Amino acid sequence: MRIIHITNGDSTRVGLERSSVPGTFHSWHDVLHSGPTPAGLSRAEWRRLRAAHIAAGDPDGAASILKDYERGDAALESWRDHDEMVFWFEHDLYDQVILLHHLDWLSRIEIRGSTTFSLVCGDRYLGPLPPEQFPPLFDRRQPIADAQIDVGKRGWAAFCAPDPAALESFAAGDTAALPFLAGALRRHFEDYPSSINGLSRSEAQILSVVDGGVSSPDALFAAWTRMEDPIFMGDSTFWAIVEGLATGRQPLLRLDVQPRADRLPTGSIAVTDAGRDVMSARADHVALNGIDRWMGGVHLTPSRFWRWNGARLVTAHA
After folding, report:
1. Of 134, 162, 184, which one is at a domain's C-terminal end?
2. Are 140 and 19 members of one domain?
3. Is the domain of 276 the same as that of 201?
4. Which of 134, 139, 210, 240 has the most CB within a 10 Å radius?
C-alpha cells in the first residue's frame, strides 16, 4: 500500500521517519496566521507572496523558501500516486489554520479515485513524541469526512476574506466537525489590537514578562510560552513580534542583543517609558506607532483596522 504523510513540520516528520509507520513523509509548514493570506491569487502568486513575507526582504532567503513551498505543494499534488494521504496536525492555531488550507485544497479535488484521505488530529503535541508513540496514533487515524471538508472550505474562505466579519460569523457557527477550530480562531482574534491600549495579546504578554524582570530573549520566550495553552508559536515568529515592539516612532521595547545562528539572540530587553504608558493604557500603541499588519486576508492600516474588545472585533480608527 502506497501511503504519503503530510505533517505539520519537520519535527513530526522526523519522528515519523524514525518510527515503524509505513509510507513516505513530507512536511508542509507555513505560519499562515502570520502575514498575508489574501484570496484571489493564483497558486504561483500565493507562493511568491508567502515566500517574500517569510524572508522579510531577503531575496536569497525568499528564493530558498519558494523552492521549499513548491516541494510541499508537489507533495500534496502527488496524491494520485498513493493509496492514502494522511494529514498530521495538532490543536493549536498554527496547525488549525494549515488544516483549513489543506481541507480547502481537498475540496477542489472533484474525483478522488481510490485514494483515501485521513487525519490524525488530537490535543497532543506531535513534534516531541518519541518514535514508538506514532504507530498507535497512525492506527487510530480517521478518514476525512465530507463535513470536515465543508467546514475547512468555508473556514479558509473566511480566513482569507478582507473583512474579519466573515471569520467572526464563521467561528460563531457550527464548527463541531473540527473540534479544536473555534478555540484556535478565538486566539487569532485576540491578536488584533486591543480596544484598551492597541496591544495584541501576544504583545501585551511580552511587555508584561519583560516588565516583570525577565530580560534575556531565551527566558522571555520560555515565560511567554507558559502563558499559552495550547502553544502555537515558534521562536522565530515570536521574535518578529518582539522586534516590532522595538521599532516605530515610539518603541515600546529597547533591545541590546547580538544575533546567533538558528537561535534567538543573546543580550537584554527592557521596557521603555512609552511601553509602560501603553501597558497602563495612558497611551495607545496604534496611535503612537501606526499599524501595517496582515491578519489572514485582513490588512490592518491606520485608516482601516479593527480592535478586539475581549468579546468581538469592533471597527476602529487610529
Report:
1. 184
2. yes
3. yes
4. 210
Q: Which of 117, 94, 121 is nearest to 29 (CA)?
A: 94
pLDDT of residue 58: 80
SS3 readout for 100-132:
HHHHHHHHCCCCCCCCEEEEEECCCCCCCCCHH
pLDDT for the residue numbered 301: 97
Residue 209 to residue 214: CA distance in whole angstroms? 6
309 in any annotated domain: no
232 with 94: CB under 8 angstroms? yes
**Residue written as grid cell 507533495:** 75
Instruction: For residue 313, give every residue at least 6 positions away whose Cβ sits within 8 Å of its Cβ, in sequence order, or none.
Output: 164, 165, 168, 189, 192, 306, 307
What is the SS3 assignment for 48-81?
A: HHHHHHHHCCCHHHHHHHHHHHHHHHHHHHHHHH
Is there a single domain that holds both residue 212 and residue 276? yes
Alpha helix locations (H) across the chain? 10-17, 43-55, 59-77, 93-107, 134-139, 146-159, 165-172, 181-189, 201-211, 217-225, 235-245, 273-279, 285-289
Quick check: 206 and 241 in contact, CB under 8 A? yes
- Report d(CA 310, CA 108) in Å as an integer: 36
Given 122, 150, 184, which residue is the final one in a domain?
A: 184
Residue 56 has a pLDDT of: 86
- Label residues 116-130 b or e (16+ Cβ within 10 Å = b): bbbbbbeeebbeebe
| Together in a domain, 210 and 134 | no
pTM of the model: 0.97
Separation between Cα atoms, residue 140 and residue 98, nearest integer Å: 21
Q: What is the C-alpha to C-alpha distance for residues 210 and 268, in angstroms, rounded to an integer? A: 10
- Alpha-carbon distance of 298 to 314, in angstroms, equals 14
10-residue averages of pLDDT along the chain (318 residues): 97 98 96 97 96 86 92 96 98 99 97 95 97 98 98 99 98 98 99 98 99 98 98 96 97 97 96 99 98 98 96 86
Q: What is the bridge-based pairing of β-strands 3-7 and 84-89?
A: parallel
Domain carrying residue 136 = 3-184
Smallest CA-to-CA distance from 296 within 30, 33, 42 is with 33
